[in-house]
Write a structure and sequence with these properties.
elongated; seven-stranded antiparallel sheet; transmembrane helix; 2 domains; LEA_2; NDR1-like; Putative endopolygalacturonase D; alpha+beta; disordered N terminus; 2 helices
């Protein structure tokens, strides 16, 4: 073997190695491009699914039910002091509940109601029966709330006495429970229901029974 052949072999090996390295770099770049394209496609798919879900939610998401207090009666409302301060009251409220959705029915479960004055409960929690409403319908409930004396603060008793002396008592009717909407394609999950109805009733000392609602009672509904 000649000296020229011996010295030419390392050069050919070098060229082969350089050529092989270029192929490796090209394959690596192609793999990165494919992975990047796959990631972009996956992100686009997730985005489209999110947009579709949002559109379906806006289309099928039902409006909140509407609560309106249409009448009130007070049969007892007394404050006592001594070893403690208590309020004993018995009241009845007629409430109209309207399902404003024309596509979904509404189910109510584990309902309870109580009355507050000056930010404190003045009646025990009273359980209410479960309800079901067809789409676009209105139902009326008329629970009697009250019972034994409920402990309250001095401020609540003083405010209640002052309101009665003035002839206008501020009350808040609170309804809690669970609500679920059902439409043809979708059955929603149970949601917590919290209703607050602020009202002002005309009430004087020694006068009980049906009482006038002063102003327009307002109810807020959270689900």
């Amino acid at each position: 073997m000649s000296t020229q052949e011996i010295t030419s072999r390392p050069e050919s090996w070098k060229m082969a190695e350089e050529g092989g390295g270029k192929c490796t770099v090209h394959s690596y770049a192609s793999g990165r491009s494919a992975a990047w394209a796959a990631c972009c496609g996956l992100l686009l798919l997730i985005l489209l699914l999110g947009i579709t879900a949002h559109v379906l939610y806006l289309h099928y998401s039902p409006p909140k039910p509407r609560f309106d207090v249409v009448s009130a009666a007070v049969y007892q409302l007394n404050a006592t002091t001594g070893a403690g301060t208590y309020v004993a009251g018995t009241m009845r409220f007629t409430v109209a509940i309207r399902n404003r959705d024309e596509r979904s029915s509404v189910s109510y479960d584990r309902l309870s109601a109580f009355v507050m004055s000056r930010g404190e409960a003045i009646t025990p929690h009273v359980p209410l029966p479960a309800l079901w409403q067809p789409k676009g319908s209105t139902v009326w409930v008329s629970p009697v709330l009250g019972g034994g004396p409920v402990p309250v603060s001095w401020e609540a008793v003083g405010g209640l006495v002052a309101d009665r002396a003035y002839g206008a008592v501020a009350l808040r009717l609170v309804v809690t429970g669970w609500v679920r909407y059902k439409s043809a394609p979708l059955h929603g999950a149970w949601r917590h229901l919290f209703v607050r109805c602020d009202l002002l009733v005309g009430l004087r000392r020694g006068v009980y029974g049906q009482v006038p609602l002063l102003g327009a009672p307002s109810c807020s509904v959270d689900t």
